[in-house]
Amino acid sequence: MKKRFIPARQLGPIKHVAAVALLAASAAFAASNAQAWTLKEAAQPYSGTTIKAIFLDRPGYKAAQQLIPQFEKETGIKVRWEVIPYENTREKEVLNFVGGGDQDIVLVDVVWIGEFASNKWLVPIKKFTDDPKLADPNLNLPGFFPILLDSFGTWDKVAYGLPFDNYSGLMFYNKCMLKDAGFDAPPKTWDELLNTYAPKLTKGDKFAFALQSRRGETQSADSFMRVLWPNGGSLLDAKFKSNLMSPESQAGLEYRQKLMKYMPPGIVDFDHAEAVNALAQGQVAMITEWSAFYPTLTDPSKSKIGNCLAITTEPKGPAGLKPALGGFSLAVNAKSNAKKQAASWLFIQWITSEAMAKPYLEAGGVPARMAIYQDKAVQDKYPFVKPMVESWQGGVPDYRPRFPEWPAVSEVIGEWGSKMMLGQVTVKEGAQTIGQKTEDILKKAGYYDGKKPLLK
Questions:
Q1: pLDDT in tens, 100-128
Q2: What is the average per-residue pLDDT within 208-216?
Q3: What is the pLDDT of residues 43-77, one digit of tens each?
Q4: Does 180 map to a domain?
């Protein structure tokens, strides 16, 4: 079977193949089993089974933790989790796969799906959706936002996981700080942010903006890639060659250097927590961050911003609205035994279901279900909903390459992107080095000699 590789240059959302392929199967047994199937009965053979997962220290996982006792009571299945830093997650999961560890529920980042699926570490969900004893007739795969189901859970037209803890990049800002500086609305474009807003909002120990840029995936995805797309740039072109020396990519990277003048000292050491806290404590006026951090910014014990918090889409660039896309899916470990696989599926199906979307949202999570966000009461209560849905429905680009080699490329960007920001190399020198090292990785993997096909 040929693998499906997606170049970063591709802007459009992936075709919604998984949901369409499985819709007929879902509908077929839904009509006959809608009244018969219950989670409690489906879980009876697995009562007493313990399944293990990895969670992150983020609001969406804390929300799931609040809801898990309900699942355990209903099913008798015990869910145990380990909370670890994002930066260690992929390595820990890969070691688990290779070393035969005891993780049953796999947390899959959008850029890990190619690696995990290609190595046959994940169970295709068809195994469970084809089993009427395990498949909830109300699963409704087309009820997920297409871009989320396809980007986070699907590889080579096969669905492996269901979207969980997904988000778009948004602009969170302190409207009181903006008002004091003479602005009654946030910047609509990145150019406005840099040239009009930033000088007036940066005074003394107060800064206009914080762009989380810590070396690692935060540098490569949340900082480096964020300034490429709005300017019309990209990491790679359609032939998988570096596109970083293009005028558009260079403009984006130069923009980031100019914006550093209006960011806190040590911004290259800022991860998500530091950027969110800078806004929460009034150190900065604006950040572009994941929608998942809304609960943190509205928690009085963690944030001083209070009623001054406001949210909108990320600013537009010359190429239009091209916000960050991030998040995860939950999948079943192919190396777990059959009983744990079934129990894991029942949990994944339950926590991502339409029935649990509202409880999950109210607990602080961000569900991937379309229906929940059509509720006007939800839109009014959660101000991040409208800009997030606008970003998802507007065709957020395939923000980072999803091929298995991305982790190696990300390490290169993490190192040289940081050096670029620190002034240890020029933008051109850094871009040339990243481009060459990236092409070396892809050449070794077989992309340039026909051993691995490129998506046309």
A1: 888 999 999 988 998 899 999 999 999 99
A2: 96
A3: 999 999 999 999 999 889 999 999 999 999 999 99
A4: no
Give domain status of residue 99, yes or no.
yes
Q: What span, in angstroms and rounded, lies between the C-alpha atoms of 127 and 293?
A: 34
Buried b (16+ CB within 10 A) or exposed e, 376-386: eebeeebbbbe
Spatial separation of the C-alpha atoms in residues 393 and 341, rounded to whole Å:
33
Asked whether the beta carbons of 68 and 79 are under 8 A apart, the reply is yes
* CATH at 24: 3.40.190.10
> How many CB atoms are located within 10 Å of the residue 91 CB?
11
- Tell me what the mean pLDDT of segment 265-280 comes to: 96
| Residues 400 and 110: beta-carbon distance below 8 Å | yes
Separation between Cα atoms, residue 349 and residue 129, nearest integer Å: 10
Whether residue 162 contacts residue 149, with contact meaning beta carbons closer than 8 Å, is answered with yes
Count of residues in the chain: 456
What phi and psi, each to the nearest 5 degrees, are found at residue 210? -135, 120
Residue pair 117/160 in contact by the 8 Å Cβ criterion: yes
Rounded average pLDDT over 309-327: 92
Residue ranges making up the domain that contains 334: 17-167+326-393
Confidence (pTM): 0.81
Residue with tokens 């929460």: 280
Dist. CA 133–CA 426, nearest whole Å: 60
- The fraction of the chain above a pLDDT of 70, given in percent, is 90
Number of structural domains, the chain? 1
Measuring CA to CA, which residue among 412, 26, 41 is closest to residue 219? 412
Q: Does residue 12 have a pLDDT over 50?
A: no
DSSP letter, residue 230: G
Domain-embedded: residue 27: yes
- The pLDDT, as a whole number, for residue 107 is 97
**CA pair distance 448, 170, nearest whole angstrom:** 36
- Indicate the residue type of 174: N
Residue 10 lies in a domain: no
Alpha helix (H) ranges present in 34-183? 39-43, 59-75, 86-99, 113-118, 126-129, 146-153, 175-180
The pLDDT of residue 5: 34
Instruction: Supply φ then ψ for residue 447, to 5 degrees.
Output: -75, -25
How far apart, in whole angstroms, are the C-alpha atoms of residue 347 and residue 58?
A: 19
